[in-house]
Amino acid sequence: MLKILNKTRKVSGKMSVPKQIMTTFFALLFGGAMGIVAKLLEVNKLPSFLNFLNWLDWSNFLGRMALWIFIAVCLAVFSKSPLKAGINVFAFFVGMLIGYYVWTSVFTGHSPAMPNLMRWLILAVVSPFLAFLVWYARGRGALAIGISSVLIAIFCCLAFNLNFADFRIVYIPEFILWLASIGILFKDVKQSAFSLLISIPVALSLEYTGLLGIIGIG
Is the pTM of this model over 0.85? Predict the structure, then answer.
């Protein structure tokens, strides 16, 4: 298995320990800031000078999963190694949970809803292992194509209604993230075309089995 992983994508270059700590600390702070922003937009509207962004429906957008998954994928695939990918993504989700739920408890006086909190805690716990695998999506070969196709399929399910009788874009922001996911996972035309093609039956399988809803993503 290790041989397959190394063949898919090799670690290129080394990062100094202080720089590694700084990148992880940045991921933690970024997660915290995003958690606070999500909570603020949940209870307040955008300032008037940002009204042109209202079409994004920010409060609901940040309450859905697509943006958080996209950020985690970006942190993972652009990390220096699969190990760093796991650490950085875990730090991001820990920061997000601290920012969101500490703000909720301290500044609004409300206790967090336990089912929702447990869902995010579970996601934070499994995120390092998922990020480790996602790092290989920007590699080469069958494994990279497989991982990329699953990721693209997830964003496809979050962006579109895949019911054949009513196929349409459900959320414009998620549609943009679906396009962006294809871009950040791009390696070359042939491999990306395979990933995109395979993502179609994968997305349909996810949609019609309801798997994303079962695991709390959809």
Answer: yes
